[in-house]
Specification:
Distance between the termini: 10 Å
Largest sheet: none
Radius of gyration: 18 Å
Shape: flat
Number of domains: 1
Order of helices and strands: HHHHH
Helix content: over 70%
Number of helices: 5
Strand content: under 5%
Number of strands: 0
Structural class: mainly alpha
Length: 152
Amino acid sequence: MVSENMDVSFKEKSAAISLVAVLGVYGYYFYFVFLGTGPASPEEMLFSMMALVVVLVIVEVAFHIVVAVLSPREANAAEDERERLIALKAYRVSYLLMSAGALLVLGRILFGSVVELEQVTLRGIANLLLFALVLAEAGRYSAAIYHFRRGV
């Protein structure tokens, strides 16, 4: 078991920064999508996606610079075997979540087309796929943090 006063590694801080950034940036976007006030056209959606990526990159870079400046030796350290194993386990979680999301989107397309309860739009499919991707990324960062805290 990991002790509570153990220092947090740079990789764990990095995963936490990425998790908060992804949830914050895309949470903001999906808040408006689920309210029904999100992008109304493919052009607006493309602009929104590009803006979200830019904001996400700026937020992550800014916070990673702060963390790297506070602990430069740790930031420049080579990845060890434990960190590689944690990354592999986290990617496995991400892959499973993305696969499940893709299957659910496929089911939504087919079910919506067959039953015709509601028209399946390309914008809706794109938002569902993006949501699956965001959940997969959040799952990856969460799994990494879990394994850093728990140990491998």
